[in-house]
Amino acid sequence: MREVLGPLVAGWRKGGTAGLATVVRTFESAPRPAGASMLVTPDGDVVGSVSGGCVEGAVYELAGQVVADGTPVLVRYGISDDDAFSVGLTCGGILDVFVEPVSRKTFEELDAVRDDIENSRPVGVATVIDHLDGGWTGRHLVVRPHGFDGSVGSERADRAISEDAQGLLAAGRNSVLIYGPDGERRGEGMRVFVNSFAPRPRMFVFGAIDFAAALTRLAAFLGYRVTVCDARALFATPARFPDADEVIVAWPHRYLAEQLAAGLVDERAVICVLTHDPKFDVPLLQVALGAPQVAYIGAMGSRRTHDDRLRRLREAGVGESDLARLHSPIGLDLGSRTPEETAVSIAAEIIARHWGGGGEPLGRLGDRIHHDDLAEPAARAGSTPGGL
């Protein structure tokens, strides 16, 4: 929903009704992840995508139907057949898509959700996508770290869903939860999709050099909140790093220590040390490697620089288990030459680290392409409107 939030709220504020289609589950090589959305505005405009083009036409028609009759629909799009006019996914994947009407009447908490997202406050939206009682379908529960707003139909169900959704929100994950009709932990009868909107993960880029400028541009494109930090005021300027969210002039190790002490660095954070100057990067890496919650720590430099850096860190008392967390020299072997190519190399290693990829050419692998831990086992192909 994040990618369509602006026009969705604009139509909502004017009192209109939009059709919102959201990918809630994926199977096999689905083209878009759970949480991807496509919006049909009250004026009939289309924003976003659920499949990259394969089934958007069918979803557009379905969204118009949902807006007209006010009844949400859960539909499955599977593999297309030999008929050129059939609706399906040529990639061989399967998508479950929930299409709902969104208006002040159906989702009165939407404006508050938008405010949370825009101000980087964690918030999740739990939506009933299937229920034995059709009157529950489409109801929302807005979940925050310490509470919730709205109701899906009963206090028992609200309590169960909010507790589980808070766990997903803390991890920044989207998922379908299954309950009994009244929120029972065991049984079938209700399915709820939790769409988590956690603040953007942070990337700290230390070293105001040309490689940092290229990495900052790519990191912003990938959705990171990027901070560039360097002790040299002459180089650390917003003009040199227009894509950074903030440019800080400070000694890197002191700045990072302050951010850690303030609780502003979580387990999704990425630290890229590009200074390759021991007076900066050794004390900085001592601080970074002492932060167990950090997802990735990489440092630029030649093999010789790397060996010297390890020697200095050992002399400073950094243990082998912490040193094993250091990605150095930073990046994957892509044969990079330019700052932009090097930025791609670094980003590729970060992505592989996050999703468990091995960095091998896909053409050499026989396994499934996607490593998303939310992807589910193969399901029956085909399109099944309504409940699943």
Automatic annotation (TrEMBL):
InterPro entries linked: MoCofactor_Util/Proc, XdhC_CoxI, XdhC_Rossmann_dom
Residues in XdhC- CoxI domain copies: 12-78, 118-180
Domain XdhC Rossmann: 203-350
Name by which UniProt lists this protein: Xanthine dehydrogenase accessory factor
Coiled coil: none
Signal peptide segment: none
Gene3D superfamilies: NAD(P)-binding Rossmann-like Domain
Species of the source: Cryobacterium psychrotolerans
Pfam families: XdhC_C, XdhC_CoxI
